[in-house]
Fold this protein.
Amino acid sequence: MSDSILKIAVADPSAIIRSGLSALLKRIQGYHIHTFEVNSIEFLASNIRTHKPDLIIINPTYWGYIDIESFKSENPSSQLHFFAMLTGLTDEKITDQYSKTLSIYDDAESIKTKLDAIFAFSKPEENDESQALSAREKEIIVGVVKGYTNKEIAVNLFLSTHTVITHRRNIARKLEIHSTAGLTIYAIVNKLVELSEISQK
Amino acid sequence: MKHKFTARSRMFDIISDDASLLSSVSRFGISLGLGDKTVQEACTVNDIDCNTFLSVINFLTEGNVELQEEFNEVNLETVIGFLKNAHSYFISYKLPLIREKLNDAVPVDEPTDPYKIVLLNFFDEYVDEVKKHMEYEDKTVFPYVLNLLKGELSTDYKILDFEDHHTDVDSKIAELKNILIKYHPSNSVNYKLNDVLFDLLGCERDLAMHNMVEDHFFVPAVEVIERKLSKLTN
């Protein structure tokens, strides 16, 4: 999804590396990146519990051996990734368990490539055509705005509920509107419905 | 660790360095007309815990969660007062003002213009959500923390429950902004509506900062106390 937020914990003893990496991460296109800086390994576990990051970028050598598996178990509900932040030459064996390695000479573009390989958020630029709503999608908006459930819409349009959900996801992506109240505004502006037809919940 | 602002910094410098800090400064109860008062002096005059004030202001300036070691010095009652003032600012002042401006900015051809009705309806739903969220904090979370400070550890509530509840209220204000930018039906420039958009942008940022203090400053500080208390009782 284009608007997914990626939470990244930057764990490094160096303030310069932490703030430098955070600043660089915010420049990467196609991601909304939130960074948290962790200055000591002691705070990493509580940081994982509190902030539930998707990715941890950490210097694999500075704090001695880092037990990645035990950190992953701090938040078992999500898939937590580790990137190794290398500042010098490191034995390959040490970075075995990390998803990717970064070097302090990486630029935004090469970090993006590494993120893309793990998190499939970014997508090629869409052309106008894919942004336009199909007739079917408009019918579904009308159903939503009138207050029907996904199941009712599916029955009315002879579709499966699953298909309706897929359509709704595409509508939200194309219009950048996620709420029913927002879709109502869109439907009124584009004269898909009359005010009297809108469900008053 | 040394931070950007200290007890000896001038209040004037804090506010003119980053105007967005003004709203935070006023939520501590400090008003304009500060002369050359230092942080220490302004805090003393207004009866505010100076360390807590500095921790919050530095946290907002540096946007950095490095504070764990300082949480012992943070006065959570002061933080709660700060957060409550923010809540009443949004609910009683800022959001009603934006609604008024929005109502004023959207022209109507007929008294029952459907666009205006659904637009205001959207805004009201959004405000309701913000209210619900903030009232929950005022009525449930803050009293829980005040009890913690008295040494009472609840067995059926933890501050992490609050985080689960903490849905993103700012995603909806972003949606309203998107709708106005992309779908507002008009054929002439409307300065009043632009004003509303600027207000929405400012409010979105302000709310995001407020949530940041809650999630990354207040909650971790409460967790520290929870851990201490549960060690004592076990």
The interface with chain A takes residues 64-66, 68, 112, 114-115, 117-119, 121-122, 125-126, 160, 163, 171-172, 175-176, 178-179, 182-185, 215-216, 219-220, 223 of chain B (CB under 8 Å).
